[in-house]
Amino acid sequence: MSSWPFSSRREARKRCASRFTKPSIDCRIRTEGRSPSLSEIVRTICDVCCNEVDAPVVAVRETVDVRGVSVTDEFWYPVCPLCGNRIGHAATMDRNFEKMYAAYREARDIPQPDEIVALRRRYGFSQRVFAAVLGIGVASVQRYEGGALPSESHAELLRQARDPQALRERLRSGAPRLGERDRERALRAVEQQAARKMDYAVVRLDLLDRLPRVALPETGLRAFDADRLREAVVYLAAHVGSLFVTKLNKVLFYLDFSAYRDEGVGFTGLRYARADYGPVPDQYDLVMAALVDGATLAYREQGDGRVVVARRGADLSAFSPREVARLDAVAAFANGFASTAELSAYSHEERAWLETPSGEVIDYAFACDLRMPAAPLP
């Protein structure tokens, strides 16, 4: 397993440039899955034999450690055709770091760069105002929006930025770097967002009008049903240990795709997309905003992230005994993994994820190759 305890990408590129032929104690790797395949050619200078070469870029499936999180994925490396050295090429290494960092953020429930930008713009904040509200430097906001990993303390502040009520408390009790006018303007914007979040609690998933409400191939031939999804998640929250959002994404994927494989129809009517950190419900940020309303489902801080917890028991009246058994089987399957990272890595081996372009909707036809074992159901 590789470890990436480096302070910068430049240092990592230098330290790991020769891992292809000379792995060290600091840079151990574990490769697995399919063999490396030719993808592209880059003209560069090998930092071992010092020749200018046309280096083929190969895909290597390996597991790396990012701040204690194991990330298994396909990473790209130019390999010197003369000496076999893995070349520390800046552009390809940056692509690898983007994958590693995205998976780390997902595992730790840290907003991705695009989400940070979207959060800031949702409140109408400039980077200066956003930084002042959070109590961090403008340069830090710029780095995190640009893809840098935040410190643990800053990661918690970014998580809090998802909650308008948390920002309202910060504005009322602090933000000394903001002038009075800026503070009042920011407070009004945050209170408006808090009111909108309360609307979500009232109408819940009905605001998700962008989700298909008809049975389509991309929804597993089931029409989306908000109540059905909610009760399924309430049940899973009570039966799956440490249900981080990352884990919930994967659990729902296996719930729907196993149902489609075994019954010919999905379970919830959700679509799924290929994210860099695994399969996720399409528009899952809206799904989570509507599901976790504080009354039926809520977040609880746990370790470096937040887990989804149920505030009441699930209403199973809409489910058949066979469907309840499927919920139990998927919960048992998820509980068989030692960590969320292990379940996430397992999902990265699915053909559904490997063969779907990033950001595209995953075809339910991949369900026939699902790796999750079929459980005996009544």
Task: Describe the SSE topology.
Blueprint: E1 2-3, H1 9-16, E2 30-31, E3 38-45, E4 52-66, E5 69-78, H2 90-107, H3 113-123, H4 127-134, H5 138-145, H6 152-160, H7 164-173, H8 180-203, H9 226-239, H10 245-263, E6 272-275, E7 278-281, H11 284-291, E8 297-302, E9 305-310, H12 321-335, H13 340-347, H14 351-354
Parallel strand pairs: 1-4
Antiparallel strand pairs: 2-4, 3-4, 4-5, 6-7, 8-9
Structural commentary:
- The structure is a single chain.
- The longest helix is centred in the middle third of the chain and has 24 residues.
- The protein has 14 helices and 9 strands.
- It is α+β, with helices and mostly antiparallel strands and 378 residues long.
- The N terminus is likely disordered.
- It is 43% helix and 15% strand.
- A hairpin with a 6-residue loop joins β3 and β4.
- The protein folds into 3 domains: 104 residues, no CATH class; 90 residues, no CATH class; 162 residues, no CATH class.
List keywords for this structure.
378 residues; alpha+beta; two-stranded antiparallel ribbon; 9 strands; disordered N terminus; DNA binding; Lambda_DNA-bd_dom_sf; MqsA/HigA-2
Condensed summary:
The protein has 378 residues and is of the alpha+beta class. The protein is 43% helix and 15% strand.
Total number of distinct structural domains: 3
The secondary structure category is alpha+beta
The whole-number mean of residue pLDDT values reads: 83
Principal-axes shape call: flat
Domain Antitoxin SocA-like Panacea: 248-353
InterPro entries: Cro/C1-type_HTH, Lambda_DNA-bd_dom_sf, MqsA, MqsA/HigA-2, SocA_Panacea
Pfam families: MqsA_antitoxin (PF15731), SocA_Panacea (PF13274)
Protein name: DUF4065 domain-containing protein
